[in-house]
Write a structure and sequence with these properties.
By secondary structure, the chain is an alpha+beta fold. The N terminus and C terminus are likely disordered. An 8-stranded mixed β-sheet has the order 2-3-11-8-13-6-5-4. A 5-stranded mixed β-sheet has the order 1-10-9-12-7, with no helix packed on it. The protein has a two-stranded antiparallel sheet with strand order 14-15. The radius of gyration is 19 Å and the shape is globular. Strand 2, helix 1 and strand 3 form a beta-alpha-beta unit. It has 6 helices and 15 strands.
């Protein structure tokens, strides 16, 4: 592995306890323009809840494969994805996951939309309390993302509540993904990774890890050779990165940065939370990010159409038949 891949990258810390939102917006804007990654602290998510979620995540992945396959991922990307399911063009190996997302409430028209369909859950007799823990944590992460969105709006010269509308974040598409990297060693020279290089699809991602090093980012994907830098976990902080939707909204001002995970022989657990605006939200250049000399770079597209397109690119169909199960 090249020596340049071992550098640790210092990141901005966004303090949600800072009452001076304009000051926070200034530092956040620079981070979003520079690399699109930062830490968030003083988020009021208890360490006890976070530890419980990771413990419950490990309990699920420790189940026999037969039990995990009972919650196999469906066409709306809910449920279990076994190792090697994700599209191998990204070089992913030995990574299994479990997806859950926002559900439409009873009698809510959103319930019929693909991104608000019911979740798939493990058997409550096998994992009692598992669903309640995950739903609670999902709500806490959504709360933090909405607080970050207020500061992002100010950083984009918008009103703090700009994203807090029914078309945007009052009815968001919000997925939480439990991830288990099953040991092994990455070899970038052979294209073998825990998770291959990619950008995230949505508005932003909130990431918690078990502390095992592995996440790397490439601030300039066009640099030859590419320069990859580690982003370490910090106690009490979440790692946040911007997604493609926010890059499109900001007309390229804010960066959705390419990142990957290198496996180092240890099992690794992480939980990313992917936030996107509502199903019918039109993703088009924000009014403060365009001018006569800076015209919109991306065509307008609905959030649902964009996410559907991106998911098709990064997943392949999974069948429950034995020949498609990981060996």
């Amino acid at each position: 592995m090249r020596k340049m891949e071992n550098k640790v990258l210092p990141l901005t810390c966004l303090d949600l306890a800072n009452f001076d939102l304009l000051q926070s917006a200034v530092s956040l804007k620079q981070a979003c323009m520079d690399c699109g990654f930062f830490y968030v602290i003083n988020h009021d998510i208890s360490e006890e809840l976070k530890e419980e979620v990771f413990e419950q995540s490990k309990k699920f992945f420790d189940l026999p494969l037969e039990d995990k396959m009972k919650a196999l991922r469906n066409e709306t990307h809910r449920g279990y994805s076994p190792a090697l399911e994700q599209n191998q063009i990204h070089g992913d190996y030995n990574k299994e996951s479990f997806f859950m997302g926002t559900e439409g409430l009873k009698d809510d028209p959103l319930k019929a939309k693909p991104f608000y369909r019911p979740n798939i859950w493990p058997d409550s007799d096998v994992l009692p309390g598992w669903r309640m823990t995950m739903e609670n944590y999902h709500q806490e992460l959504l709360r933090v993302c909405k607080a970050i969105a207020r500061i992002l709006a100010l950083a984009l010269d918008l009103d703090a509540d700009y994203f807090n509308t029914s078309e945007m974040l009052e009815n968001p598409i919000a997925y939480m993904r439990l991830l288990h990297y099953e040991g092994g060693m990455s070899d970038s020279s052979r294209g073998i990774y825990g998770c291959g290089a990619h950008t995230d699809h949505g508005m932003m991602t909130l990431l918690a890890t078990d502390g095992v090093m592995g996440l790397q980012i490439c601030k300039d994907k066009d640099m030859k050779p590419q320069k990859w830098e580690y982003v370490p976990s910090i106690d009490g902080a979440y790692i946040v990165n911007l997604g493609d939707v926010l890059e499109r909204w900001s007309n390229g001002l804010f960066k959705s940065t390419m990142h990957r995970v290198l496996a180092n022989g240890q099992d690794r657990y992480s939980i990313p939370f992917f936030l996107s605006p509502s199903h019918d939200c039109l993703i088009e250049c924000l009014p403060t990010c365009q001018s006569e000399n800076n015209l919109p770079k991306y065509p307008a597209i609905t959030c649902s159409a964009y996410l559907t397109q991106r998911y098709k690119e990064s997943h392949r169909e999974t069948r429950a038949s034995p020949e498609n199960r990981p060996k």
